[in-house]
Amino acid sequence: MPILKNCKVVDLRQGSMRETEVGLEGGRITFLGRSKDPDKVSVDLEGGYVLPGLINGHVHLGDVFPFDEVDPNEGKMIHVLRCLRRGVDALLAGVTTVRTEGTRYGVDVDLRTMIGKGWVQGPRIMAARQALRVTGGQGDDVGALSADGAREFQKRAREELSAGADHLKIFITGGLSVRQGVLDQLQMTDKEMEAVITVARSKNTYVSAHAASGKAIFQAAKAGVRSFEHGYSLDREAARAIRERSGYYCPTLCVTHCQDWMKRNRFEPWAIEKATRAASDHSESVRLAIHEGVKIVAGTDLPPGDTDEGINVTARELELLVNAGLSPLESIQASLLNGATLMGIERQIGAVEPGYQADLIATRENPLKDIRALREIFFVMQSGKVIRWDRP
Prior knowledge:
Elements lengths: L2 E9 L4 E10 L2 E6 L8 E11 L1 E6 L16 H17 L2 E6 L6 H10 L7 E3 L5 E3 L10 E3 L2 H13 L5 E4 L18 H13 L4 E7 H10 L3 E7 L2 H9 L3 E3 L3 H4 L1 H6 L4 H23 L3 E2 L10 E2 L2 E2 H11 L4 H15 L17 E4 L13 E6 L2 E5 L3
Parallel strand pairs: 1-4, 5-6, 6-7, 8-9, 10-11, 11-12, 12-13, 13-14
Antiparallel strand pairs: 1-2, 2-3, 4-17, 15-16, 17-18, 18-19
């Protein structure tokens, strides 16, 4: 394994830099310091800034755009190939870990297996497999499974975990992808949510929820949901409920701010207008959450390797979080430290420290000074293997 030299390592815990070498062995980081072996193969990063590979905390690798072109009968093979393509794109962009939030046929678990065995390249996947919804509720476009009543939700939840899901995802409100979608209407009962949460806890994992509005979030937080996705309209009571129960908020600001991406993916004018209309409240919700001390996780809900105005959307999400009030350091921490902790893998990824996976990226400029430095990632490594290296 090589040594990374002539680089500055970003310490995300302290918000500092350290000029050092990074030793690698067996896909992990072995030391930070100076190598005593002059014959060791080295990679000269020419003064680049090294930090962990980005984590995108909310993706659907198999989504079809625009949503009205989704074929519910699409074959599993086509779906898994689309997921694979999106996974490769993500990895090349410097996104070395993703949290999937619902995938038709549960093929995110299949892809996770293929990547783990080294058959294909792709990011580390923490999979929700197939999400759960009430009959007729939000989630049809991502192949969510329908259930009604606590007993059915309990059974579905057990089946998903038995099939390999790392966590469970539920849809509790409407969303922006449906023209008449109602954002502030709770679609699941307390007993239905509690049934899923009880199953998750029995397997030492958690539940994330597609949740658009504060009222629904408040109820779900009290029930025990741990991670809240989107939160287009968050109020103080809901934010405090998340914080008091040590929950997380993954706002996916890209959903309401990436009009260029929506136009290139042929979204209907009404869909672009609906997203744009929600953008101001969405940003204000993030500001409120930051003020209330809610732990933020960075995720896009857009394919993690895609671009908006020429900027990778995962990096764009971090810029939007900075615009909403986080510092560049806090924005990167939202992706890496918070993302890894939510997923329960904080001792494996998310830091450049001995014993951690050698999932690494490098930028030319200092991302702690200007978050836009992440637009120019020139080096990507996963588990000690160089994936991309753009030499000057």
